[in-house]
Write a structure and sequence with these properties.
Elements (H helix, E strand, L loop, with lengths): L4 E6 L7 E6 L7 E11 L1 H9 L14 E8 L16 E4 L2 E2 L5 H4 L10 E2 L11 E5 L3 E3 L6 H4 L2 H13 L7 E5 L3 H12 L3 E5 L3 H7 L9 E6 L4 H9 L1 E9 L15 H7 L2 E4 L5 H13 L8 E6 L3 H10 L4 E5 L12
Parallel strand pairs: 10-11, 10-12, 12-13, 13-14, 15-16
Antiparallel strand pairs: 1-2, 3-4, 3-8, 3-16, 4-5, 5-9, 6-7
Helix pairs in contact: 4-5, 4-9
This protein binds zinc ion (ZN).
Length: about 350
């Protein structure tokens, strides 16, 4: 690769992508240039590339789960970042850029900011050798935490937001539908909050890792659905105890029925709450990295595939068929950890 040029995945139209050579982006004021070490692949990327997404603008380099190393800083900007970083630092990138002044931002839900610009959706993301991110979005990776563990901060942040919105607390019976990477993280993080957690998963292999169950429990205080199937939502609603809360965590693909029949009378008589959860706030990223750095929440056993970026198609198939667990992509294959079994 020539200097000033990098390899990247570029989506020009929904339904496909190309491996392109793009100019290495220049950091602007209060921005940093980051050399991507590892980027996580999730169902959202599958949606972005193959089906399209509400927040996607094209053309775009996808990738919203990114850990890398700061290689250059742009000129100083007006706003003071939450964390000071220097060239050479390992950082996790909170994928959003928010305005800080709109009603959502002021109530601590910057993921719902009316000016929200998400990496991989509104601006270029981590499916590339380099990415530019605002200093405002950078969180240093704790010493002792590997890059491939730190990149779980993104999905884990979204899980922490969902647990918060579901009001999950000590002693709650918590049902998680789906033992994919998100469901497994929800289960582990929910248990750390003191909830009696049950993960419901029809697939035997996935169930084993999450210590899950095939059938739903008779009753749960909180149900979080981490699988994009309306049947799972109906099953979760049916299992809610009086005053129970359903968290709508997983979006549905366009082909799925996103308006299943729900009995309002059942919600009424049982005082059920239904709450959506989409993405995460900056503080969830900080909390996720702290949790991962503490060693209280293990994630390394969830990585099923470490692939070079050029094997994205294989990664997308693994995610689509739900045959792998967490799939990680490496723009620089030399950075793939040695112990990789693939
Ligand atoms: Zn805002």
């Amino acid at each position: 690769m020539q200097p000033g040029v990098m390899q990247a995945v570029l989506v020009r139209e929904v339904g496909g992508y190309e491996l392109a050579e793009l100019p290495v982006p220049e950091p602007g004021p209060a921005e940093a240039l980051i050399r991507v070490s590892v980027t996580g692949l999730c169902r959202t990327d599958l949606k972005v590339i193959r089906h399209g997404h509400r927040d996607l603008t094209l053309p775009r380099v996808p990738g919203e789960e990114v850990v890398g190393r700061v290689v250059a800083l742009g000129p100083e900007g007006a706003a003071a970042p939450a964390h000071q970083v220097a060239v050479g630092d390992r950082v996790y990138i909170y994928p959003g850029v928010w305005c800080g002044v709109c009603p959502s931002c002021r109530r601590g839900a910057e993921n719902l900011c009316r000016e929200m610009r998400i990496m991989g959706f509104h601006r270029d993301g981590g499916f590339a050798e380099h990415v530019v991110a605002p200093l405002q979005s950078l969180i240093p990776v704790p010493a002792g935490l590997s890059d491939e563990e730190a990149v779980f901060a993104e999905p884990l942040s979204c899980c922490l937001n969902a647990l918060e919105l579901g009001g999950v607390s000590e002693g709650d019976a918590l049902g998680i539908w789906g033992a994919g990477p998100a469901g497994t993280l929800l289960g582990r993080a929910g248990s750390l909050r003191g909830a009696e957690t049950v993960v419901i998963e029809p697939d035997e292999r996935r169930r084993a890792l999450a210590c899950g169950h095939a059938a739903p429990p008779a009753m749960v205080d909180v149900a979080i659905v981490a699988v994009g199937a309306s049947e799972a939502y109906l099953e979760a609603l049916a299992a809610l105890a009086p005053r129970g809360r359903l968290v709508v965590f997983s979006g549905l693909l366009p082909a799925a029925d996103d308006a299943p029949h729900v009995s309002l009378n059942r919600l009424h008589y049982n005082e059920h709450t239904v709450v959506g959860a989409y993405g995460c706030a900056f503080r969830h990223g900080e909390a996720a990295l702290e949790l991962l750095g503490s060693g209280r929440l293990r994630v390394d056993d969830m990585i099923s595939h470490r692939l070079p970026l050029r094997d994205l198609e294989r990664g997308l198939d693994l995610v689509a068929r739900r045959t792998g667990m967490k799939v990680h992509l490496y723009p620089d294959p030399a950075l793939i950890p040695e112990r990789s079994p693939q």
